[in-house]
Amino acid sequence: MRWPGSSLVATNSTITWALRALYADLGSFERSARLxxxxxxxxxxxLKEETEADGFGLALVGNLPFGSGFSAFGKAGVxxxxxxxxxxxxxQTGTICAIFICGPIADERSYSLDDSGTGxxxxxxxxxxxxxxxxxxxxxxxxxxxxxYSSEVDMDFFTLGIEYRFGxxxx
Length: 171
What we know:
The chain is an all-beta fold. It has no helices and 7 strands. It has strands at residues 5-12, 17-35, 45-66, 70-98, 101-130, 133-147, 151-164. A 7-stranded antiparallel beta sheet has the order 1-2-3-4-5-6-7, with no helix packed on it. β3 (45-66) and β4 (70-98) form a beta hairpin. It is elongated, with a radius of gyration of 23 Å.
């Protein structure tokens, strides 16, 4: 399992607006399901898969200062993502018994899917700055990431971080 993380490069064009370029490693997630319908109609079937996701984004950030050192911000932009999915599909083809112990006989197929695309991203957060140092709490949503066989997910990403602004005096 990978732990999610992100890094960012930002430049302020005015006091209240910034353009942010970012890289986000969204980590990995798993899913499993019992299948019905054509595949599972005559025999039980299952799907197990793991997906890793990451990508680059560009967002416009609006900053609203209030109070001493506090500010709220919101952002909207685009996120270019890649997903790597690996998994297996199994269909129970029978049952085998030996000395009072029975178990399924399954036909398993492994697969690997790589996908990429571009979708919208949104975010909200709060920041406290004291001199050049700051603390920030942020929520980001990355929409419509492809995952496995023709499904899409929206990923929410929560961050608590420390920020340092170069060239800011701390007196």
